[in-house]
Write a structure and sequence with these properties.
Layout: H1 12-20, E1 23-28, E2 52-54, H2 62-76, H3 85-93, E3 97-104, H4 110-115, E4 124-126, E5 128-134, E6 140-148, H5 162-173, E7 178-184, H6 189-193, E8 199-203, E9 214-220, H7 228-231, H8 236-241, E10 242-249, H9 254-265, E11 272-273, H10 275-280, E12 287-292
Parallel strand pairs: 1-2, 6-7
Antiparallel strand pairs: 1-3, 3-4, 3-5, 5-6, 7-9, 8-9, 8-11, 10-12
Length: 295
């Protein structure tokens, strides 16, 4: 029986099935990419159980991959951003790994069984996926994709915090120092991704991407602020170090994005977003931009 930290009590599914061992983190990784000393950089006791580990190159794990595809396609298909299979293999499985949470098939709730209709001879079914890829910059990784089964379930059957914990586990497990990620302005994902450390705006306008209104963010991973995703307490450490830059970014205004991008390119940054600000506002509202306070 595993002991789950009290701070995660809002994630009642984790308390229930994690404690019994019927839900565990998983790592879908080829042997050469296995992390040598997982979970040693960041002091955290959120994931006391050993992860389920599958090799995506083995034929017997194909069905696990198919279930990952199933969740991902339904999450990103409506926005025409579903991941082709060759991208998953070439750009995710070969250079990086997939992490998330999986549930023992014998314990799957009926609502999950109705959604995940594919049968498998493996013991576990994935509930979420987070693709993370190392870069040439030392200690820096790219968060490529994150989604969970929640979007496919009735509201009362969802696993609160599943997406957040899936990314948290993978960052912790891989000892990630710095993480780059991409999402679109006004996307609900911004409310989740801003909770892993101070969110630097790496690009505010990204026309080289399929969607020009994309923010590239960079986070120096800091587990001390992760609890605030569940407690919703103010990030006082952020406010001590960062102050308003004197302007805002408007997720409805392309010119606002271009203006901030030009400031970034001129070297007047770095600029940051506040997780508390993002959490308290509607997705369409303008956000204050922050910068380091002068010492």
């Amino acid at each position: 029986m595993y002991k789950i930290p009290k701070i995660l009590q809002k994630a009642d599914w984790y308390q229930k099935w994690g404690a019994s061992g019927d839900i565990r983190p998983y790592v879908f990784v080829r042997p050469d990419n296995r992390i040598g000393q997982p979970g040693t950089r960041h002091r955290l006791n959120w994931f006391p159980m050993d992860p389920v580990i599958y090799n995506p190159l083995d034929l017997e794990t194909l069905n696990f991959a198919e279930q990952i595809y199933f969740i991902e396609e339904r999450a990103f298909g409506p926005s025409n951003m579903a991941m082709p299979r060759w991208v998953f293999y070439d750009c995710a499985v070969i250079p990086g790994f997939v992490g998330g949470f999986a549930m023992r098939n014998s314990a799957l709730p009926e609502a999950v069984r109705q959604v995940m209709t594919r049968t498998t001879e493996l013991e576990w079914t994935p509930l979420s996926l987070f693709i993370i890829i190392p870069t040439m910059a030392k200690g820096q990784w790219v968060a490529h994709n994150l989604c969970a089964i929640n979007s496919l379930l009735p509201e009362q059957e969802r696993f609160y915090g599943l997406g957040f914990l899936s990314k948290a586990f993978s960052l912790w497990y891989a000892n990630v120092e710095s993480c780059l990620g991409m999402t679109q302005w006004g996307n609900p994902a911004l409310k989740l991704h801003s909770h892993y450390g101070p969110m630097e705006i790496f690009t505010a306008y990204t026309p080289v991407h399929s969607h020009a209104k994309t923010i590239t963010y960079r986070v120096d991973v800091d587990t001390h602020c992760w609890e605030q995703f569940f407690t919703r307490e103010p990030d006082l450490a952020f406010l001590e170090k960062y102050g308003p830059a004197g302007f805002q970014i408007d997720p409805k205004d392309e010119q606002s994005m271009i203006s901030l991008q030009k400031k970034i390119e001129s070297g007047s940054g770095p600029y940051y977003l506040s997780s508390a600000d993002i959490a308290s506002k509607k997705l369409t509202e303008a956000l204050d931009v922050y910068r380091l306070k002068e010492s």
